Request: fold
Amino acid sequence: MKGEPAEREADCGKTARDENRTGTLIRRKNSSKARAAMEELQCKQAEKMIPLFIRDDMDRRERRAFLNHVDHCASCLEELSIQFLVVVGMQRLENGDTFDLNRELRSRLDMEKRHVRVLDSLQSGLFATEAIAILLGFLTLLVVVM
Reply:
């Protein structure tokens, strides 16, 4: 774990690390997308949200901001990994289960990202449906008036 929060904040977004499916670390340079994610959510806020993520106690907007942040911030991803290992690992040990927590965390992050994308798509579809309904109502009104 990194040092003080200010130290982690300074490292935030410089180079983000992800693990691919084989566990190999991949480094990415700070892109404009990464900078935008950093501006939306600061490290201190993201760290406070980690327990909520682990308990699956976030709404869609919080989840999206959190996932964007940890996707681009190596320090917060590391802190998430540590807390996930402690909390979920303790639960697994108490239950006597076998586990691969690193794989479980990667899988959970991937699933949550897909979930956010699906919900965003559904919301976009609802907006389009509402727009069509309003347009049809307006056209019906025009036909009735004429």
Summary: Residues 5-145 form one domain. Residues 101-145 form the longest helix (45 residues). The CA atoms of residues 49 and 66 lie 7 Å apart. Confidence is low (pLDDT under 50) at residues 13-30.
